Amino acid sequence: MSRHNQEKQKNRKPTRFLRLIILEIVVLIALFGSYRLYLSMKAQDQSGPKNNSQQSDTDSKGPKDEDSKNEDPKDAENVLTPEEIAAQEEQERLQKEITHRQEIIAGADQLALGYDYDGAINFIKEYKSSEGNYQVYPELSDAVSRLEKEKGTLLQLGGSYDSVTKINHIFFHSLIADNSKAFDGDGDSRGYNMYMATVSEFNKIIQKMYEDNYVLVNISDLTKKVTLEDGSTEYQEGDIYLREGKKPFVISVDDVCYYEYMDQDGFSSRIVLDENGAPTCEMILDDGTKVNGLFDVVPILDAFVKEHPDFSYRGAKGLLALTGYEGILGYRTNDPKSPTYDEDVKQVTEVAKALKADGWEFASHGWGHKNLQEIDLAFLKRDTNRWLKEVAPLIGGSDVLVFPFGVDFETTLGTYSSDKYHFLKKSGFNVFLGVYSKPWMHIKKDYVRMTRRPIDGQAMIEYPERLMDLFNPRDVLDPDRPKRNW
Question: Whole-model pTM?
Answer without folding.
Answer: 0.82
